[in-house]
Write a structure and sequence with these properties.
- By secondary structure, this protein is an alpha/beta fold.
- The chain has a domain at 2-127: Collagenase (Catalytic Domain).
- The chain has helices spanning 15-28, 44-55, 94-104, 108-123, 131-171, and strands spanning 2-7, 36-41, 63-67, 86-92.
- A 4-stranded mixed β-sheet has the order 1-2-4-3, sandwiched between helices.
- Strand 1, helix 1 and strand 2 (36-41) form a beta-alpha-beta unit.
- Helix 3 crosses helix 4 (108-123) and helix 4 (108-123) crosses helix 5.
- The protein is elongated and about 70 Å long.
């Protein structure tokens, strides 16, 4: 799976983390491992231009998705015979995301993670124009978001336990560090 990241926003973004989120979503939805996508981070001005040009709406927005292939066949995991494809581009505005995070009362990291998941789902053909589509997409999005953070918490707990075990075993002399014998 290839995920290209281009940060044109002037803001620092956790590109490695957001790439991992996108990969997690694609894996969870059984998207072909040879699929490709691009993530672009832009400033408020660039996002405003895109939003006005493509959606005919004024001002910036948080995330826009530009599917490359029309998902036939494949794309959504419930479609027949999914195969490798250039999924398209996800464009995210970190400055807009920071404003939304503040209003929502959560971290910018969580907002960027949410927007990454939202963008990937759009590339896979999910939409929220109709109430039934919105329900399906947002339930899936929220489930993936919570699963992602739970996976990260579990990994952190495991790493902390490994570190505690390493310190304990080292204190009681049960851990032989080959570097200590030199």
């Amino acid at each position: 799976m290839s995920i290209e990241v281009n940060n044109e926003s002037g803001a620092e973004v956790p590109a490695t983390e957001l790439t991992a989120v996108a990969r997690y979503v694609l894996d969870r939805l059984d998207v072909h491992p040879a699929a490709e996508l691009s993530m672009v981070f832009v400033d408020l001005e660039a996002m405003s231009e895109l939003h006005e040009h493509w959606m005919d709406l004024p001002g910036p927005t948080d995330v826009m998705s530009f599917p490359m292939d029309e998902m036939t066949p494949g794309g959504r995991p419930d479609a027949s015979a999914p195969g490798p494809a250039m999924l398209g581009d996800i464009v995210i505005c970190p400055q807009f995301a920071a404003q939304q995070a503040k209003q929502a009362g959560h971290s910018v990291e969580r907002e960027l993670t949410l927007l990454t998941i939202h963008g990937v789902l759009h590339l896979l053909g999910y939409d929220h124009a109709e109430p039934d589509e919105e329900k399906e997409m947002f339930e899936l999005q929220n489930g993936l978001l919570e699963d992602w953070f739970e996976t990260r918490r579990a990994e952190a707990r495991k790493a902390a336990q490994v570190e505690r075990d390493r310190r304990l075993l080292g204190k009681v002399g049960l851990l032989n560090d080959p570097d200590e014998s030199r």
